[in-house]
Design a protein that fits this description.
alpha+beta; four-stranded antiparallel beta sheet
Length: 1326
């Protein structure tokens, strides 16, 4: 086909691999010919022309890269040589001629390559045979891949060596040996093999002379040579370990799939050969003898004669016992021929007959020096076999051989040693005493010194080295002997035979606190002697050293007991720096999992040589309560009962407090109507009672969101289940149902409850930090759960906010965000603004900043406030605060300051209090804790203006020159939205601007601005101890000035003042009293009405109640999640007084109610104290606090906001089903302050003073801090006594206390003691 279609003149070269075949031929082209390479691929032939080439000398493939082609062409002498690189795409690249040699004059060119591990270049070995000599060139080739053809293929010459043969037309191989990579050149025309190192130096080879070599191959790491009718297997240049005789001459040999393919004279057969003798002791003996004896040819002859016999052990014994005074004069070739004449065919697979082999010829016997060295080497082998369990059956034959050798040499002490060990051995010769020292035989002693470490033991031939006596003396005297025991060092041939000696002696040295370098080189272990022993022995095994692992596994029970003793000593308290693998090896999987590795990195089974398990009994399982996890029966939806289950059953296993909390926060069951049947039969009575109780149901979502926070582990389904808000009632007597008639209420009655309900459902998911590898799957789930193409609802909007608070909105694209915002649905827009800002908190991300700024009048040009709902504006303000949190962004601070001091107008008259409060929160967030450090804001008079808004001041004070409230300049080069927009930024709002809805007087309305300014100052100067700000926030000291302070403003001012002096907050009545002016204490006295104007004392008592509530709220923020019982008791004491409308340490003073007896004037104080108590005991389910909250929750006449506060308090008490707590970082305190702000709505539609959509911001203040203990064998949770921070005694599972460093100690009778020092970053994102 090639001749017919490609015009080939003739095939010159052929190269093939697994998927292609390259044929080189000539193609006639005009007056000359061109070399053509036709590559046959599975898809067909591909032809590549090489212009100017006359012939191809050699082709060599580089795996995964391409082909290197050497050839020659026509032209002047320097241009004869041709070198090209052919990529896998058959694209030729001409290379620089750096190879040397003249391919045009070469008789043959042989190539092979080797790629060192971890490098991207090949080492190329080229043998070029010319009429003058034979040269080996060592080259470094760095190829290129198919997609890197623009780069050059680099070839560098490393070395050139002239071989000691004049030609080599056989083959070239690379042989990877334990001593390094070698190059094998086979020259069958000379019947020789040349060995070279990786750099080209000639290496001495035992088969280099005297043996006619016809072919060679590297098979399973060994070099196999074909010499006539025989096969020789070498594991090293000086060690032949196998010899096989064949019936016919071997013409060629190849290695295929673990077998040798032999081409004999008349047939081709595949055989498998053994690389060592079949007799186990003969193999080990030959290995150690080859290491000790110095004459390579004599060693090779010994190996071949031994393996030629049917009984290899008898043959070896016969050779060793036929010692001669001098070595035989015959050459190696003659000895080999003598052996062949006396050896029958040993390959039954080739049909050869078998017969009993005669004893070897006496011409193969060793001389006296080699026999003496062999006796010493075999003695070391015997001592190593004594401490192993697998070779004990072969000790007697080996001892018999050694006994015969030492008797033959006249070594009396050695003979007596073996006779004492083996009673059946009897001394039959009169042995001389003293024994002649071995050092008198320089040749024998030199052989031992060359191969054996510490060979001085054999110099005098005194008492023989006894390993067990050596070990016993070391254990008895607890010190290693001064002289090390002899052994063959690692890396030399025969080291495996004495490896047990080296391992056991190394263990002894480590146990005796020696440096351990006499037997092993490397890093010296540290620690106690037992820790050194475990690290030195098991450390290499854990690093993958199979040799050490095999030796340790082969040790007998006695030596292994020493290692197990050290393991047992370390198991109780292992060092902290041990890795997980080493801890698992000693049976401490529990400590291994605490070392930082994941469960998948730690083996669940013990190492075979450390077969120890925790024998301590597993404590009996505690009975599981029926409702220990949330199910459909309690919340109406499945919230994930898989492991780890919500509300761990061991947290509150002895009671049903979690079940009670779940039932109190359940909104998916009908409302139970109680009362007389006659009363309930009246529909109006039913509707009235149902409407009253419906306030409680509508207020539950926030609390339930806290209870189920981050409790859903597995994401299943395409949508997020949201529990319903059931507003129907069921009479307790006859189980009759009735529904609430919502037509009599505003259409937005259920809007924000549904919003908070959806948000609570979304907060059940794991946060971004907790999802781990599941993050990649969350985006598609979010897109399907939110369903942007469906009609927007309040519940869906709440889900969006919940996802944003958890950080999941980052996965939504711009188009998806636009589709959500396009319907202009108020709740959805609010959720997006807050959720995205929470996702990018503190980053100032420009895309989100632009989206939020669209809803702010001061930033957006041509802005019309009627187009943006008040809720959107408030959400945008908080979004700006979150987005630029802690940045002190000048432009945003200037804008917010102007909005805070902005008077009402017809466009800006709805929900003024909420708008101002959100502005104050945003201003405080941007300058969070940096109010005194932001020097670049000094010209804004930030502090002066905020203090003016806090007190009753004239409008002109804000800007006395222009009588304007706000006129911010354009900052050149300022980043962020609104930069360079003069139209809206220069809008001026005069105080004389007419407002038809709100009357504007000459003074600032502090009812609107004071709470906002106080909140801003408290957040800005948090923990700063600024005396000016603190004194300004404190209440006035006279009764007349206190008349201008509203109770809710007093509450916020006390909280903010406490935030400023954070470190001064104390759990004491003295600190609480110090926060109230003296005139408030005087108002508590009996019969003091004459001291005040009519009605003034009532106002002062209300102020005093709010001061106490503010102090309790500050205590809750300071000790949030701390479980401080002293703070809890102080808060509950004041709460108990407020619940009965009394003040004073003993509750002696009765609070005056208004004329109508309205008790709601004191509800904000009760709510603040309830939330404070839950903050202190967050996640603990404290029964004392829970009891009080249940009493508050039973109130039927409480408002919607009071029910919300109690529900949130219950949720905080069981935050995350006990798995989460509150952080104390400034960011967390700010988020908690905004979320728990103690001004709750009166009805479900009320957003006048504090927007309801800010309540879920508590999610930004939480963090996981549950400590759970699991049995390492069963994987089940178990209660364990703990000591936390050296003082706190607890039982797991429990919530860890706050602190940068938390120490946990396990002190249990059933389990090992574990000490854990864990750093807890309070600022981390939960």
């Amino acid at each position: 086909k090639i001749d017919g279609k490609l015009g080939a003149v003739g095939v010159m070269q052929l190269w093939d691999d697994s998927d292609r075949c390259i044929v080189v031929h000539n193609e006639t082209e005009g007056d000359g010919t061109t070399q053509v390479l036709t590559t046959f691929l599975p898809i067909g032939p591909v032809m590549t022309r090489l212009p100017g080439w006359s012939g191809v000398t050699a082709i060599h493939g580089l795996p995964k890269y391409g082909f290197l082609i050497l050839g020659y062409g026509l032209g002047p002498a320097p241009d004869y040589d041709r070198v090209t690189y052919l990529s896998h795409t058959m694209h030729p690249l001409t290379l620089p001629k750096q190879l040397g040699g003249m391919w045009s004059h070469a008789k043959s060119v042989l190539l092979t390559s080797h790629k060192p591990p971890g490098e991207d270049s090949y080492t190329l070995y080229v043998i070029c045979t010319t009429p003058m000599n034979c040269v080996l060139s060592v080259l470094s080739v760095k190829p290129v891949t198919t997609y890197q053809l623009e780069k050059n293929v680099t070839i560098d010459t490393l070395n050139e060596v002239t071989l000691p043969i004049d030609s080599c037309e056989g083959k070239i191989l690379t042989w990877d040996t334990p001593h390094g990579m070698l190059v094998v050149a086979v020259a069958p025309e000379h019947q020789k093999v040349v060995l070279m190192s990786a750099t080209g130096e000639i290496v001495p080879f035992v088969a280099a002379d005297g043996f006619p070599i016809h072919d060679a191959v590297v098979h399973e790491g060994n070099l196999v040579l074909a010499t006539g009718t025989d096969i020789m297997v070498f594991t090293a240049p000086t060690q032949c370990v196998c010899f096989h005789k064949l019936p016919e001459r071997v013409q060629s040999i190849r290695s295929i799939n673990g077998s040798l393919l032999l081409r004999l004279k008349n047939e081709t057969r595949a055989i498998r050969i053994a690389a060592s003798p079949s007799h186990p002791i003969a193999a080990r003996a030959l290995t150690i003898l080859c290491a000790v004896l110095t004459n390579p040819k004599q060693v090779t002859s010994l190996v071949m004669e031994t393996m030629s016999q049917r009984d290899e052990w008898a043959s070896l014994c016969g050779i060793l016992l036929q010692a001669k005074a001098s070595p035989p004069p015959s050459s190696a070739l003659e000895r080999l021929r003598a052996v062949r004449r006396s050896v029958p065919d040993i390959l039954p697979t080739l049909g050869a007959a078998t017969a009993t082999a005669p004893m070897p010829s006496s011409r193969a016997a060793l001389d006296i020096s080699h026999t003496r060295a062999a006796a010493c080497a075999l003695h070391l082998m015997h001592e190593a076999m004594r401490v192993t369990s697998v070779h004990r059956p072969f000790l007697a034959p080996l001892a018999s051989l050694i006994f015969s050798l030492v008797q033959q040499q006249g070594w009396k002490l050695y003979a007596e040693h073996y006779a004492a060990l083996y009673p059946n051995l009897r001394i039959t010769h009169n042995l001389p005493l003293p024994t002649p020292p071995l050092k008198d035989d320089p040749q024998a002693f030199a052989m031992l010194q060359r191969a054996v470490m510490h060979a001085s033991w054999f110099a005098e031939l005194a008492s023989p080295p006894d390993l067990l006596t050596y070990v016993y003396a070391s254990i008895r005297f607890k010190a290693s002997p001064a002289r090390a025991f002899p052994f063959i060092p690692h890396g030399r041939s025969g080291s495996a035979a004495t490896a047990p000696i080296r391992t056991l002696c190394h263990l002894i040295d480590l146990r005796n606190n020696c440096d351990g370098k006499r037997y092993y080189e490397g890093t010296v272990p540290t620690g106690t002697p037992h820790e050194k022993a475990v690290t030195g022995m098991l450390g290499p095994v854990m690093e993958g050293n199979k040799e050490v692992e095999k030796v340790i596994a082969s040790l007998s029970l006695g030596p292994t007991f020493l290692l197990h003793q050290s393991i047992s000593a370390c198991r109780e308290a292992p060092p902290a720096d041990w890795g997980s693998k080493l801890l698992s090896a000693i049976g401490r999987q529990d400590a291994a999992k605490l070392s930082g590795c994941t469960h998948a990195d730690i083996s669940t089974t013990l190492h075979p040589f450390a077969d120890y398990k925790n024998e301590k009994s597993f404590p009996p399982k505690l009975p599981q309560a029926e409702s220990s996890s949330i199910t459909d029966n309690t919340l109406g939806v499945d919230v994930g009962n898989g492991p780890p289950s919500i509300g761990h059953r061991l947290l509150w296993s002895k009671d049903a407090r979690l079940a009670v909390a779940q039932s109190l926060l359940c909104s998916a069951v009908p409302i139970i109507l109680t009362g007389c049947n006659e009363d309930l039969s009246d529909p109006s009575v039913q509707q009235h009672q149902l409407a009253t109780l419906a306030n409680r149901v509508l207020a539950l979502p926030c609390g339930r969101g806290m209870l189920t926070l981050s409790t859903m582990v597995n994401l299943s389904g395409s949508t997020l289940p949201v529990p319903p808000l059931v507003l129907c009632g069921r009479r307790a007597k006859d189980q009759a149902y009735t529904s609430l008639d919502l037509t009599a209420y505003a259409s937005e009655t259920t809007l924000w409850p549904e919003f908070l309900n959806g948000c609570s459902a979304a907060l059940r998911l794991q946060s971004m930090a907790q999802l781990g590898t599941n993050r990649v799957y969350i985006r598609d789930w979010i897109a399907s759960a939110v369903s942007p193409n469906a009609a927007p609802t309040a519940g869906t909007a709440g889900v969006v906010l919940g996802l944003g608070l958890l950080g999941h909105l980052e996965y939504l694209t711009g188009s998806e965000l636009y589709s959500l915002m396009f319907p202009r649905h108020e709740a959805t827009t609010v959720a997006l603004l807050l959720g995205l800002s929470a996702c990018y908190r503190g980053t100032g991300e420009k895309r989100v900043s632009g989206m939020v700024s669209l809803h702010l009048a001061p930033i957006t040009p041509h802005y019309t406030e009627q187009d943006v709902a008040p809720g959107m504006q408030a959400a945008a303000l908080i979004g700006i605060g979150l987005l630029y949190q802690g940045t002190c962004h000048r432009l945003m601070v200037d804008m917010l300051l102007g909005e805070l001091s902005r008077p009402p107008s017809d466009e800006h008259s709805c929900n003024l209090h909420a708008y101002a409060l959100c502005t104050g929160f945003a201003l405080g967030l941007i300058c969070l804790g940096k109010g005194g450090e932001a020097t670049h804001l000094a010209d804004l008079r930030l502090l002066d203006k905020l203090l003016a808004l806090l007190t009753c001041t004239k409008w002109e004070f804000l800007d006395p020159q222009s009588h304007t409230l706000w006129k911010p300049p354009i900052v050149p080069g300022e980043d962020g939205p609104g930069a360079g927009i003069p139209l809206s930024m220069h809008r001026v709002n005069n105080r004389n601007q007419n407002c038809s809805k709100v009357m504007i007087g000459p003074l600032i309305d502090t009812n609107v601005t004071a709470p906002a300014a106080a909140a801003a100052l408290g957040l800005m100067f948090m923990k700063s101890k600024n005396e000016v700000v603190h004194s300004a926030l404190m209440l006035p000291t006279t009764a007349s000035l206190l008349q201008s302070v509203s109770p809710d403003a007093a509450l916020v001012r006390v909280i903010s003042a406490a935030l400023v002096k954070w470190d001064d907050i104390e759990v004491s009545d003295a600190w609480v009293d110090s926060m109230a002016p003296e005139v408030l204490h005087e108002a508590l006295l009996d019969n003091c009405d004459y001291m005040f104007k009519p009605g003034a004392r009532q106002h002062l008592l209300l102020l005093h109640a709010n001061v106490i509530a503010g102090c309790m709220f500050a205590l809750g923020l300071k000790f949030a999640g701390s479980e401080c019982k002293k703070a809890r008791d102080l808060i509950l004491e004041n709460l108990s007084h407020l619940m009965v409308y009394r003040l004073g340490k003993d509750g002696h003073c009765q609070i005056f109610l208004d004329e109508a007896g309205n008790k709601k004037v004191i509800e904000p104080c009760i709510n603040a104290c309830a939330l404070a108590a839950s903050c202190v005991m967050t996640g603990t389910g404290c029964a004392t606090v829970f009891k009080v909250l249940r009493q508050l929750q039973k109130r039927k006449d409480a408002s919607y906001g009071s029910h919300m506060a109690v529900a949130m308090a219950i949720g905080l008490l069981f935050l995350g089903a006990g798995h989460r707590t509150l952080s104390s970082s400034p960011q967390a305190v700010a988020a908690l302050f905004i979320s728990l702000y103690p001004r709750f709505p009166t009805v479900a539609t009320d957003n006048a003073y504090h927007p309801q959509f800010l309540r879920p911001l508590y999610a930004l203040a939480t963090m996981p801090r549950i400590l759970e203990t699991k049995d390492v064998d069963t994987g089940e949770s178990c209660p364990v006594p703990l000591v936390i921070n050296k003082t706190i005694v607890a039982t797991s599972p429990c919530v860890l206390p706050r602190g940068e460093e938390v120490t946990v100690e396990v002190r249990s009778d059933e389990y090992y003691d574990v000490n854990v020092c864990k750093g807890i970053a309070e600022q981390r994102k939960a």
